[in-house]
Amino acid sequence: MTNRPRGTHGTALTRTAFIAAPLCMLAYGTIRLSDPDHGPGLAWTSGHVALLCGVLLFGAIFLGLLRLSEPTTGAARMSARVATSLGLVGVVAVTTQGVIDLVVGFRAGDRAGMDRLFEDIQSHPGVLPAVYTVGPMLFYVGLLWLVIQLTVQRRISVWRPALVVLGTATMAASLDLMPLGGLLFAAALSPLGRDVAVLRAAVPGAHARTQGVQASAIDRPFS
User: Fold this and answer.
1) Alpha helices, DSSP H only, in 153-191?
2) pTM, 2 dp
């Protein structure tokens, strides 16, 4: 049996996440458009499963973007870690919202029943800001913060955060534009998984040599 190098699975997951997460958002948006009533049923369930998969994969993307920001020290390191933490809090909030949507879809018999259940859930103190307003916003704040910082550090090209900003604005304008937002995110983020994988592959080496490989790779801007 062939032994796989340590970290191979993590590298493969990261590369997959940078491609699959935006495509899952695209899939959710497309399925949503096929269900004009936005009621319980196959479209509601499959769409939210796609959304949940995408959001969870964004957890790996946040950690990958943090890795791209290194090696760095001082304020830049703290900034990247704060941005990553905010993004991961956003991931938890959106995941919670997606799970609630799935449960409500399974329990309700029609859209009116779903609305009543949503009102009951959102009436609990703290649920609305944590799960539906402030919490999900942190997902986008963390993502924009990280890609802008990486651009300032000249780790990625300036047009990538521009696409992320455009994708975020598109989805904020209307959920009906989610497929377009997913495409914009895919164009901005998909190639970065390769760059994270290069850095992860360097980790198993000796510490000093690893730092040298990382510095050599990061000193030149990524695609």
Assistant:
1) 159-173, 178-189
2) 0.85
Residue from 185, 217, 202, 218 nearest 19 by CA = 185
**CB 141, CB 90: distance < 8 Å:** yes
Q: What is the residue type of 7?
A: G
Q: What is the mean pLDDT of each run of 10 residues along the chain (223 residues)?
A: 53 89 97 93 97 97 92 88 97 98 96 96 96 97 96 92 96 95 96 80 45 38 36
Residue type, 74: G
A 10 A CB-CB count for 3 gives 6
**Which residues are within 8 A (CB) of 74 and not within 5 positions of it... i.e. 6 or more apart?**
none
The answer to whether 97 touches 136, Cβ cutoff 8 Å, is: yes
Task: Give one DSSP letter per residue of 24-82, joined into a string.
Answer: HHHHHHHHHHT-TT--SSHHHHHHHHHHHHHHHHHHHHHHHHHHHT-S--HHHHHHHHH
**Residue 48 CB partners (closer than 8 Å, separation 6+):** 28, 98, 101, 102, 105
What amino acid occupies position 179?
A: P
C-beta of residue 141 within 8 angstroms of C-beta of residue 88 = no
What is the distance between the alpha carbons of residues 182 and 180, in angstroms, rounded to a whole number? 5
Rg (alpha carbons) of the chain, rounded to whole number = 19
